[in-house]
């Protein structure tokens, strides 16, 4: 399973913010932001803080991308 945070990065651009701004305003660690940059898993608490900071819903910042194994099993 992988996550895509492409929507988040585009939303930051639209809001004229960068990852450092997100770190400071949402009070999330730089490690969490780096993990998201690699499409990794972060806690729902991190996603909640980001959504509150950006005034958005989770579907506005993250997409689920199934692994090839997940698709083949169905």
Summarize the SSE layout with pairings.
Layout: E1 2-4, H1 6-14, H2 19-26, H3 30-37, H4 44-54, E2 63-65, H5 68-73
Antiparallel strand pairs: 1-2
Describe the structure.
By secondary structure, this protein is mainly α. It has one domain (about 1-74): lambda repressor-like DNA-binding domains (434 Repressor (Amino-terminal Domain)). The protein is built from five helices and two strands. The protein has helices spanning about 5-15, 20-25, 30-35, 45-55, 70-74, and strands at about 1-5, 65. The protein has a two-stranded antiparallel sheet. This is Helix-turn-helix transcriptional regulator. InterPro entries: Cro/C1-type_HTH (IPR001387), Lambda_DNA-bd_dom_sf (IPR010982). It comes from Roseburia amylophila.
Q: Number of DSSP helices?
A: 5
What is the CA–CA distance across the termini?
Answer: 14 Å
Tell me which CATH architecture applies here: Orthogonal Bundle
Structural class: mainly alpha
Query: How many structural domains in the coordinates?
Result: 1
How many beta-strand segments?
A: 2
Strand order of the largest sheet: 1-2
Overall pLDDT, averaged? 92
CATH topology: 434 Repressor (Amino-terminal Domain)
Helix content: 55-70%
Q: Mind summarizing the main beta sheet?
A: 2 strands, antiparallel
Question: How would you describe the shape?
Answer: globular
Strand content: 5-15%
Report the CATH superfamily: lambda repressor-like DNA-binding domains
Low-pLDDT windows of residues: none
Strand/helix succession: EHHHHEH
Our Rg estimate from Cα atoms comes to 13 Å
Q: What is the CATH C-level name? A: Mainly Alpha
